Amino acid sequence: MRKIVLLFLFLISSSLYAQQKKKDSLPVPIWKIHGRFTFIFNQSSFTNWASGGENTIAGDLNVNYDFNYKKKLINWDTRILTGYGLSYVSEKGYRKTNDRLEINSLFGIRSREKNWFFSNFINFKTQYARGYNYSESSNELVSAFFSPAYLSLGPGVLWKKSDNLNLNIAPASARFTFVDDDFSGKFGVEEGENVAFSLGFNLSGYYKLSIMDNIEMENIITIYSDYLNKPKNIDIEYQVNIRFKVNKFVKMHLTAHTILDDNASGNAQFRELFGLGLNYIFHEKKVYKNI
Question: Residue 278: which domain range?
Fold first, then answer.
């Protein structure tokens, strides 16, 4: 846990050290909209291969939609992240490799300090389809649509250096966990109930940087501690996305995603994705106006 937090803070501090103040005479856009579609495909085939192997086909589709609004004292950032992936393994059938729907919205009113805002955030995340824990003996159902689903919201303070670097601190944030009857008694929800409520400390950060020409790195971190139930068991979610640009439409993509959450799993969760795929910006717009 400490290593993850220290890594994120190191990336922020190194970026601040490298940045230099530059005067920018261009007008500031009040709206920035960016929609990106990514499709990654992998395939392997074996015929009379002496060392063996299984034929596989895998595809992963992701859509990221960002909306940034700035005008006078107002700053409002909204991000929609959604993705779904499947793989087909011969003799085993289809397996889900990615399933995500997440909406983040962060509203801020600027304080007297340039980069500090009084903020309010809302975060919702769930998945689309059923998920299974595959084993040799059985396939255990571990998730379904809206089970679990998490809704978090609360006031706080936002430090925002730019659209690529921000940190939001919400010391009194509410979190609701939703499950259907099949998952009652799991994910921190009491047996016989469908909703669990928690109140705690929420810290979320975002940092995107260019490592070198045509290579960018995106860091997303969330830390949560529930005051009402084992506050020392801190939940951490950390995701790193590295994109290698081949040309305008083709990119190599690496994702490493780690979750520490005792209510969801007693062990650390880790997901990794690497592949070459199609990258298409389907909506990009800036609306300029003097502020």
Answer: 2-18+41-288
